[in-house]
Amino acid sequence: MLGASSMQGRRYHRKSRNGCMQCKKRKVKCDERKPKCQKCEVYGVPCTYATGDSTKTTSSPEPSSEGWAQKAPEGVSEIESDCRSTIPGSLPLFTLELLHHWTTETSQTLSAEPEVQLMWREQAPKVGFTTPFVMHSILAVAALHLYRLCPVHRKQECLDQAHAHHMAAMQAVAPNISNLMEEQGAAVILFSWLTCVYSCGRPHTQNDTLILGESGTPEWLTFLRGNKVVLESSRDMFRRGVLAPVFNNGARHSYVRRNTPAIGGEQYVWRVRDFIMEHVSDSADREMYIEAVDSLSQSYAFLMTDVSRAADTTVVMPWLFEAPDQFMDCLQRRSPPALIIFAYFCVLVKKLDWMWWLEGLSDKFMAEIFNALHPEYQEWLRWPSEAIGWTCFDVLV
């Protein structure tokens, strides 16, 4: 007969045996949704259920977690409960491994600038300790980076963790984005940048849409451009706070880029200018498109006329941020001029292939644009396709 102390040490949990065969094989919790559970739907695999399963459940109150994990939405707690190696009364060891991987590896891969790397390694986790959605975003990116490096037998586990932490961050931010921008601007900006890293770096299927959302602008691009509201009112404050290394580094690059004669980039964008003048009759639309091309021309002048300059996100990605809102609306409507201009942006994105989360992204962007563009305009993509080495162009044309 067990004594009182032994009874107190026993942990009970709720367990269902009705999950799908794929989740059972991966040893993760299934939500038992039919005909296809959420995890199988996310990873695009068949979802099958065994017949004749019975459900047996036992339950009792579980010990409460401490710290930020106590506030984690259901998606993360489910996956963390599947981790067999834990420190009693603490976080699963895999979560600790992800945080260690972030500080020793991942934080060094988000920029080439030492002071920016230091911010990601030391300051970002400090924000995460008091802001759950930032910590979940950090862990999501760390899990995604670990997925790139780990042996095959661990890859699915890393993807499950990455997806769960990403969803936990999204569930915390999406319904409260307006209030959070006012109250926790720096944390929201960190979240937005990390969401961009996650969305660009996760494994993609052939049918994924990265720039042309089925129901509007994709989430990563929405959050990235949404930062304009915060930055326009608080840019000076951010240059003195936690994010100062990023903003100061970006300001230096922006100053040089904006003061580089745009004429040096004209040789690369003259074709798209010809297209706009030939095919856009509305004067307001033409002016908006030319504005987007002018900004692109400056980036070309900065990066293409001096091969010794290393490409960084603070040089390439600002164009996404600076492009007029009307341009982004036209892009989502699959307007030919907007699609062709974005194809020229892919040439600059190609220069960021040295970053693991952007490697190959220019090819994915180009394929998405090519498939969205009416065949009569696809020939206008030939130069940017050749510039990035996108070899599918000749086959598809």
Describe this structure in words.
The protein contains 21 helices and no strands. The protein is mainly α. It is globular, with a radius of gyration of 24 Å. The longest helix is centred in the middle third of the chain and has 22 residues, at 152-173.
What's the Cα radius of gyration? 24 Å
Low-confidence stretches: 1-15, 52-87
Q: What number is the mean pLDDT?
A: 79
Amount of helix: 55-70%
- Report the total helices: 21
> What is the rounded distance between the termini?
78 Å
Report the biggest beta sheet as strand number plus sense, adding barrel if it closes.
none
Estimated share of beta-strand residues: under 5%
Overall morphology: globular
- Counting DSSP E segments of at least 2 residues, the number of strands comes to 0
Structural class: mainly alpha
Order of helices and strands: HHHHHHHHHHHHHHHHHHHHH
Describe this protein with a few key phrases.
globular; DNA-binding; mainly alpha; disordered N terminus; 21 helices; Fun_TF; zinc ion binding; 397 residues
